[in-house]
Specification:
- The complex is a heterodimer of chains A (about 350) and B (about 350).
- Helices cover about 75% and strands about 0% of the residues of chain A.
- Chain A has about 350 residues and is mainly alpha-helical.
- Chain B has 2 domains: about 15-70; about 85-340, MetI-like fold.
- Chain B is mainly alpha-helical and about 350 residues long.
- In chain B, helix 5 packs across helix 7.
- Chains A and B meet through helix 4, helix 6, helix 7, helix 8 and helix 9 of A and helix 3, helix 4, helix 5, helix 6 and helix 9 of B.
């Protein structure tokens, strides 16, 4: 009897304080929504966004008030923090969903086999028709060449840092690799541009590849380094103890153990540079015709194509449709690369020996 | 006298430190560079490392040289002029407007993105139901990979038309401040750019913060819980203090990204060469945007001038990123997680 009485007046002798029932937050949310709609209708606000904002503010205020009354201030603060975190999450989801949805919805309009297999050679920017074949070709060549330069240099640097790196040189390389990760892509483009100005060269595809390779190297170094560090020392020691030279140990034991992660890192780096526009704009220049030679003459590229369809078409719907379709192609390429890379990472995860 | 002049001479002569040959041999063996294969492989990998350093140095040297060519011809003050006329004789151009626009748009992006990104990182690590946090983190990872030109296209064709409502509202209630006054122009302004940049750097800041929050020692959190702390108190007392430097460096990485962003700004902003008090009216410009939009019409001298502005951007991002890395490095030395 006395126990029940104690619970009834919430005296501190019980271990658990009073708490709101589980359904309370849903109830408060529903109440806030109804009230917000009422206020919105009464005040003549026609924007649904404003209704949502009012509902959100009401929800947080009501949660705090009710929780403070029943559970105390500390619990009330906790509840408000929880709802703020959820609100932040939902707030961030809105633009991201909108981005993907718009790209898919507007991209599928003109995206078909014709679009993928024809160039813009005989089509003015404001007309309908044409395609992105030349841009895909240019992108693949530029990114391929960039990878051929950037990936080996990046992987070898990572091997140096992990397997040999002691002393000041290794420290300097580590620091500048970190700093290099943050170089804006347009600055890498300007660097190659300054070389081209000095050698008096016209834009061509390979110049873009060089800038992309600069952007790619630090990314590859970082990810490869992480992967090589995961290889247990016992493997290296076992190999060295058998009298295997260090370079063979690295090539036959260390690298194969972490090859999955290294490939993942390279693919993520490819995904990153495939979407770079700024250096390509400065160095490759864009070209409505098919140019399969990356070493001579201006080329097209997928991200640059999107920019030019947007900016040079003076608002023609046909050009915007092409820009969206090219965006969808680019996003699909990048996302597939990402997913395959992550799949490989999971499939070939290094055995850490634990 | 004679002795005092003689003494320094003897001090200068190096002590006889000719090492025994066997010792040097041993040292080389320890480094594992005795066999030809080893020597070649070491040279290759060390060469790649040095190659990276050379590239960094070359970037600085070449940009500085071309920038010097341009700035030495500049008839106006490079730092304070509100003009970009490289085809005039003599040419007049300056970076005041660009520096202002770059800083303002990045600050807006940071103010919006950092709190939300930290909240999302907390959501993933501490609030989301376990079944949800994995996919959410995965999606945020993928969003970091969306190319900036796609963000730019979305910003220009979707975000800009949707800004009218917000701008009208801000103008109505806060227009008197001057910062939020709006003349009903197209909302291709610094605020729109800032919001778009915030969306773009959100995944970057979230990813790094999430990693830091994951590393908070379980013991700290359990200790706080054992004292009867609520979830919010656990976060305030153990998670945020532990992750503070990580969040700061994550934010600076995001800042570096925002400062150098080119295409998203170039598609959204309608630029001019003036500093406007209002964030809502179109105008202004950023370093990267100015380079992208002026490049096609620029003469060789005009390109040098653009390279000069790019050099300033390079130095700024170098400082920001260097500082961020320094904070991360200091943290990993002292963090309990590495003990």
């Amino acid at each position: 009897m006395s126990h029940a009485a104690a619970v009834a007046d919430k005296s501190p002798s019980t271990l658990k304080g009073a708490s709101l029932p589980r359904w309370s937050s849903w109830a408060i949310a529903a109440g806030a929504l109804v009230l917000a709609i009422a206020i919105g209708l009464a005040g003549g606000l026609d924007s649904k966004v404003q209704w949502g904002l009012i509902a959100g503010i009401l929800f947080i205020l009501a949660t705090f008030g009710i929780a403070a009354k029943v559970e105390g201030r500390r619990q009330a603060k906790d509840r408000v923090a929880t709802s703020l975190v959820w609100v932040a999450f939902l707030l961030a989801v809105v633009p991201l969903v909108s981005l993907l949805w718009t790209t898919i919805q507007r991209g599928v309009k003109v995206l078909d086999v014709y679009f993928l297999t024809h160039s813009m050679g005989v089509v003015a920017d404001s007309e309908a028709g044409g395609g992105i074949y030349h841009a895909i070709l240019g992108s693949l060549e530029q990114v391929g060449l960039a990878t051929a330069i950037g990936a080996p240099v990046g992987i070898l640097t990572a091997i140096y840092l992990v397997e040999y790196g002691r002393g000041n040189l290794a420290k300097a390389v580590t620091f500048f690799v970190d700093v290099m990760t943050g170089i804006p892509s347009i600055v890498a483009g300007l660097f190659i541009l300054s070389l081209m100005l000095m050698l008096d060269m016209q834009p061509f595809g390979f110049a873009g590849s060089l800038a992309l390779a600069i952007l790619m190297m630090p990314v590859v170094v970082r990810s490869t380094e992480e992967m090589l560090k995961l290889v247990p020392n016992e493997l290296r020691e076992a190999s060295l103890a058998l009298g295997v030279p260090k370079w063979r140990t690295i090539l036959k034991v260390v690298v194969p153990t972490s090859i999955g992660g290294i490939i993942t890192g390279v693919m993520l780096a490819i995904a990153r540079i495939a979407g770079e526009t700024a250096p390509v704009l400065l160095l490759v220049f864009g070209n409505p015709f098919i140019n399969a030679n990356p070493f001579e003459g201006a080329q097209a590229s997928l991200p640059l194509y999107i920019y030019q369809q947007y900016s040079q078409s003076a608002g023609s719907t046909a050009a915007y449709d092409r820009a969206w379709a090219a965006s969808l192609t680019l996003i699909a390429f990048v996302m597939i690369l990402n997913m395959v890379a992550r799949g490989i990472a999971r499939w070939k995860a290094p055995k850490t020996g634990r | 006298m004679d002795i005092s002049t003689h003494n320094p001479d003897t001090d200068d002569t190096p002590p006889p430190i000719a090492p025994p040959a066997a010792d040097a041999e041993q040292k080389r063996a320890a480094r594992g560079a005795t066999r030809p294969g080893d020597r070649i492989f070491l040279a290759l990998s060390r060469g790649s490392g040095i190659f990276l350093l050379v590239i960094m140095a070359a970037i600085a040297v070449f940009l500085t040289y071309r920038a010097y060519l341009a700035i030495s011809e500049d008839d106006a003050n490079f730092l304070t002029t509100f003009e970009w006329n490289t085809s005039l004789v003599p040419p007049k151009f300056g970076i005041a407007v660009l520096a202002f626009g770059t800083v303002v748009s990045s600050i807006i992006a940071m103010v919006i993105a950092v709190p939300i990104a930290v909240a999302i990182a907390l959501f993933i690590t501490h609030y989301a139901p376990r079944r949800m946090s994995g996919p959410v983190a995965y999606v945020i990872d993928l969003l970091a990979a969306v190319p900036s030109i796609v963000y730019g296209l979305w910003g220009a064709l979707v975000l800009v038309p949707h800004m009218d409502g917000l701008f009208g509202w801000l103008n109505h209630y806060l227009g008197w401040t001057g910062v939020f006054s709006w003349d009903d122009g197209a909302p291709r302004s610094m605020l729109t750019v800032g919001i778009l940049l915030a969306v773009m750097i959100l995944p970057v800041i979230t990813n790094v913060s999430r990693e830091v929050f994951r590393q908070v020692p379980q013991m700290h959190e359990e200790a706080a819980l054992a004292l009867g702390a609520t979830r919010w108190e656990v976060i305030r007392m153990s998670v945020l203090p532990f992750g503070r430097s990580g969040v700061i460096s994550a934010s600076m990485l995001g800042l570096g990204r925002a400062l150098g962003e080119t295409m998203a700004v170039a598609t959204v902003l309608s630029p001019d060469f003036d500093i406007h008090a209002s964030l809502l009216n179109p105008g202004g410009g950023t370093f990267a945007q100015n380079i992208a939009s002026k490049f096609n019409e620029a003469t060789e001298f005009g390109r040098d001038a653009l390279i000069a502005s790019g050099l300033v951007l390079f130095v700024i991002t170098l400082l920001v990123n260097g500082a961020a890395r320094m904070i991360i490095a200091r943290r990993s030395e002292y963090s309990g997680a590495n003990a």
